[in-house]
């Protein structure tokens, strides 16, 4: 059992061991339930797309979508002028 204190703003700190056990990270959300005088904190599932964040970053700036679109538009203008 852990003992925690509620701050003046109503905030609590979840002990590190519990955060590690449940894989809780900054930005994760918890459901708070009141059940017969017991406060229950339950982790909410993360959005599946958040797992992909940063996974497909390219180290080559030329591969970025903006650069590709600019090249495509430039080529289109060249073809239209002919």
UniProtKB/TrEMBL annotation:
Q: Which Gene3D superfamilies match?
A: 2.10.260.10
**Which parts of the sequence are annotated with region: Disordered?**
63-82
- Compositionally biased spans, kind Basic and acidic residues: 70-82
User: What superkingdom does the record give?
Assistant: Bacteria
Record-linked SUPFAM superfamilies: AbrB/MazE/MraZ-like
Domain SpoVT-AbrB as annotated: residue spans: 4-49
A single Gene Ontology molecular function, please? Answer: DNA binding
Instruction: From the Swiss-Prot or TrEMBL record, give the protein name.
Output: SpoVT / AbrB like domain protein
């Amino acid at each position: 059992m852990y003992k925690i204190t509620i701050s003046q703003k109503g905030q609590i700190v979840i002990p590190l061991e519990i955060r590690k056990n449940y894989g809780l990270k900054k930005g994760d959300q918890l459901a708070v339930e009141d059940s017969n005088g017991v406060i229950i904190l339950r982790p909410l599932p993360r959005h599946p797309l958040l797992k992909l964040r940063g996974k497909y970053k390219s180290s080559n700036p030329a591969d970025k979508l903006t650069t590709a679109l600019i090249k495509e538009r430039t080529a289109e203008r060249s073809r239209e002028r002919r």
